[in-house]
Amino acid sequence: MRGALSPTAVEIVMTVTRFLKAFLLGAMIAGPVSAETVPQSREQLQLSFAPVVRQAAPAVVNIYTRKVVRTMSPMFADPFFRQFFGNQMGLPQERVQRSLGSGVIVKADGTVVTNNHVIRDSDEITVVLADRREFEATVVGADERTDLAVLKISTGDQSLPVLPLGDSDAIEVGDVVLAIGNPFGVGQTVTMGIVSALARTAVGGTDYRSFIQTDAAINPGNSGGALVDLQGRLVGVNSAIFSSGQGGGSIGIGFAIPSTMVKAVLSGITTGGKAVRPWLGATGQAVTSEMFQSLQLARPVGVLVNGVQAGSPAEQAGLKVGDVIVSVNGHEVDDPEGLRFRIATLTVGTTAQLTVSRGGQERQVQARLQPPPENPPRDTSEINGHNPFSGATVANMNPALAEEMGASSGDGGVVITRIRPGTIANRLQFQPGDFIVKINGRPIGSVSELKGVLAGQGRGWAMAIRRGGETFTLTVGN
After folding, report:
1. How far apart, in whole angstroms, are the C-alpha atoms of residue 262 and residue 256?
2. 449 CB neighbour count, 10 Å cutoff
3. Which residues pair with 222 in a beta bridge?
4. Which end of the chain is more exposed for a tag (fewer CB within 10 A), N or C?
5. pLDDT at position 456, please?
6. 10 pLDDT more than 70
7. Where in the chain is the domain with CATH 2.30.42.10?
8. How far is residue 450's CA from residue 443's CA, in Å, rounded to a whole number?
9. Which DSSP string corresponds to 299-360?
10. pLDDT, averaged across the chain
11. Tens of pLDDT, residues 120-175
12. Active-site residue among 143, 147, 207, 323?
């Protein structure tokens, strides 16, 4: 066949290919090499990540969780059937739900970091080390908004391996990284790749999004495992993948939570029991290609400020509507998610240096960060009675509640925080996060105003609800 290679030729090509791969990888580790330079020794042909793996892998653990789930047949939940068969036929049945994931020992006292979705709602958590030691774990704290959780294992006087935290801000696209975890439950596995991209904010899964993207193979079970640099430091916690088909396997696009966020959450949970994020008090939108020239910017970058809250660190720093926040502490931000991530990695009480473009001129602005205030008081209340919101828990929106719910802190008013199943509010398909704007034409500015309107209202209800930035109307009754 034309163009076909003989077996000998194929062997030669494969040998040369393996040589070139080893040489190029060796060049990445050893430094720049001239195109004319050939390996000078046997050692230059031998490339291995084994020293890094020996250093890092012992601190990466397997996490096994157990949860008892009680279920009931839908037929016996129906009162019509229960009147014939009795309550004994509809007793809940229990089954054990098991899952697996990975984690990283970050402190010698037994502190383990993993993904929140790995351990969420678990009744039992078992941590298994690479040397097969097993320990029961307790949850110190979890932060659903970053999908991080902190566990603690008690080992007595036994020593534990620890993986030191690195600086995710120091890595660059093209850096070689290793992913260590327990994919598909097969046991500890190491894969190698490069950093494909940084500050990926369009990926779901958390409220604070600025992921490290890598092509190191990450699969189900790797969640909570380590992304390690070639100095054996933790630069990210593997969290999510893109996959094709029903297999859910890796296609070379994996995402890790940067170690800067891990440090912030770890500090908050281990010192105060929960992650307390600083409050800037400014809202904005991404600068698009259609608007950057009118803002006198050289390119579409930054966050255009469209709201500044009174008394906030942003106002005290002199930020104004129309300003463009270009960077935080020297780190460029491209959209509101990137800005929120950068602020969230800082500590309450510290000062953030913002690079701001105003009228085409850049200036440095200092914002001293503080915790989000509880102003106005939430006045959290569950609504009862014969009205459309019966079964809904409502509260006055304030910056602290906005931070917890992932809402814009600039939106005041009354917000639904919870819906009890089987209630009127549930049947009308209200959702947590909905703002109650008006009832029968009357603006609703507080929980007390809402209660007053509901108490004096008759049978007809015309409601204006704001959801996701858009307002719709709903009419119930006469």
Report:
1. 10
2. 17
3. none
4. N
5. 77
6. no
7. 282-368, 381-476
8. 9
9. SS-SEEEEEE-TTSHHHHTT--TT-EEEEETTEE--SHHHHHHHHHTS-TT-EEEEEEEETT
10. 83
11. 888 899 999 999 999 999 999 998 888 999 999 988 889 999 999 999 999 999 99
12. 147
Stretch(es) of the chain classified as CATH 2.40.10.120: 48-276
- Given the structure tokens 């440090």, which residue do they identify? 263
3-state SS class at 25:
helix
Tokens 């230059």 -> residue: 44
Query: What is the CATH number that goes with domain 381-476?
Result: 2.30.42.10
Q: Active-site residue among 196, 210, 223, 357?
A: 223
Query: Residue 232 carries which side chain, given as an amino acid letter?
Result: G
Pseudo-torsion of CA 309, 310, 315, 321, nearest 10°?
50
Among 99, 117, 335, 446, the active-site one is 117
Query: Could you confirm whether 147 is annotated as catalytic?
Result: yes
Residues in the chain: 478
* Structure-block tokens of residue 57: 């892998």
pLDDT in tens, 343-359: 999 988 899 999 999 98
**331 catalytic per annotation:** no
What are residue 29's DSSP bridge partners?
A: none
Give the range among 41-45, 72-76, 441-445 with minimum mean pLDDT.
72-76
Task: Kindly report the pTM of this predicted structure.
Answer: 0.76
Helix (H, G, I), strand (E, B) or coil at 402: helix
Residue type present at position 85: F
**Dist. CA 4–CA 396, nearest whole Å:** 75
Structure tokens at 12: 């030669």
- DSSP-derived letter for residue 293 is T
CA dist 7 and 13 (Å) reads 10
For the domain bounded by 282-368, which CATH number is listed? 2.30.42.10
Backbone angles phi, psi at 344, to 5 degrees: -70, -25
Q: Which amino acid is at 297?
A: L
pLDDT of residue 14: 44
Q: Contact 346/208 with Cβ under 8 angstroms?
A: no
Q: What is the DSSP letter of 279?
A: B
DSSP state of 265: H
Q: What tokens appear for 443 in the block?
A: 């603006």
Picking from 274, 268, 269, 335, the residue whose alpha carbon sits closest to that of residue 302 is 335
Dump pLDDT digits (tens) for 314-335: 999 999 999 999 999 999 998 8
The CATH number that domain 48-276 falls under is 2.40.10.120
